[in-house]
Amino acid sequence: MAKASKQLDLLVVDGYNVIFKSERYMARMDRTGVSDPFEQARELLISDVAAYAKGKYEPVVVFDAANNVSPERPYTSKGGIRTIFSKTGESADTVIERLVTEERMVPHAVTVVTSDSTIRATVGGIPVTKISSDVLVHDVDVLAHEYESENAARQRQRMTLEDRLSPEQREKLWKLLGR
User: What's the pTM?
Assistant: First the structure.
């Protein structure tokens, strides 16, 4: 008999609210006016949310399409992250509230990431957890630092065959070589 997989909690991220809370994302803004100024910041946020949510959440990032260069953006899924742009005339707040309401009807636990006080007030209650954008930004910064440290340590490692073998395998090799 196959084991039923546990349903992950839904993580709903107020995309632009998080972007505007962090220099990490604001530094990626294209200020040349040539292309969509938010493109790189959104891509980095989506990547960061994927790392943050891995194995713990089913993530959805919601963006307000009203002020985008291309307001008619499709619903997309990239790297396991659902990305939703609100429709023209609809705010991201409305989309977030709708997602949370739908999940509460199931009932299914939801975590909402925003610092928008209106959203935080309207989506409260069980089973909804609210996290401020600053907390997500901090947690992502910690994850990024840990990744960079681990990557730097791996790059400093010697990559000889001997270094890649377990102590038991190394002992057998030495015996074969007569050491």
Answer: 0.75
